[in-house]
Amino acid sequence: MNKTLQSPTVHNPDILIPVNPVIEQYMRGLTKITDHSVLADMETLAEHNNFPIIGRLAGVFLEVMAKSIGAKRVFEFGSGYGYSAYWFAKAVGDGGRVFCTEADFHNVEKARQYLVAAGLWERVDFKAGMAQTLFGQTEGVFDICYNDVDKCDYPEIWSLAKDRIRPGGLYIADNVLWRGRVAVPEFTDVFQGWTEAIREHNQMIFDDPAFDAFINPTRDGLVVARKKTMPV
Question: CA distances (Å), 114 to each of 40, 105, 118, 192, in order?
Answer without folding.
Answer: 11, 14, 6, 33
